[in-house]
Amino acid sequence: MREEGFTLVEILIAVTISAIIMTVTFIFFQQSLSTWERSGADSDWQQHWRVLESGLQRHLNNIFLSPLYQDNLFIGKEHSLEFLTVEDKQLKRISYFFDPYQGLLKREISSIDKEESQQLLFFNNLEIEGVNFYFYDPKDDYWKGYWSYEEEERLPTAIKVQITIKKVELPPIVIALYLGREYQG
After folding, report:
1. Is 83 in contact with 73 (CB distance < 8 Å)?
2. Half-sphere exposure of residue 109, counting CA atoms within 13 Å on the CB side?
């Protein structure tokens, strides 16, 4: 008389095949999740980079300097940039600065006439290791780490912003300044 059921060998083969299928499935889902998180982080820094570039470009294109105005302002340091611009028919102070303690790049817009200000954080959910501003001097054909309109009596011809984020190499933002240049025809 023959008993029906599975032998020990058949059960071991079935368990082994099931374990292999589960392992392959787990690895596939883990890699998919990792790729999805990485692509989300990539698109996140790209979005912040585009917002920073367009805002900086817009503000620098509207920079305000006048021989009739006593308090002209353009000061660029290694980790900050401050200047005046005309926005909505008002004179405003624009400050971009890196806070190394919080690891944040901040933009602050304050009205010259009023006590109000707006602040915007860039790359606030990413780990910023550093932000450096450089200013191109055509006289020396050199990128400087400091620029003052008061000392130089002119603007740099370009500004470069280099941002370093953990695990991501960001391309530099380079913006040409046209205000104050002499054009030769």
Report:
1. yes
2. 15
pLDDT of residue 95: 93
Q: Which residues contact 107 (CB under 8 A, 6 or more apart)?
A: 52, 55, 94, 95, 96, 119, 120, 122
Residue 128 has what DSSP assignment? E
> Which residues on adjacent β-strands are paired with residue 121?
106
User: How crowded is residue 37: how many other Cβ atoms within 10 Å of its Cβ?
Assistant: 10
Residue 180, token pair as written in the block: 């104050």
Which tens digit of pLDDT belongs to each residue from 27-45? 888 887 776 766 655 677 7
Contacts for 135-139: CB closer than 8 Å, 24+ residues apart: 135/76, 135/159, 135/160, 136/160
- Residues 87, 107: contact at Cβ < 8 Å? no
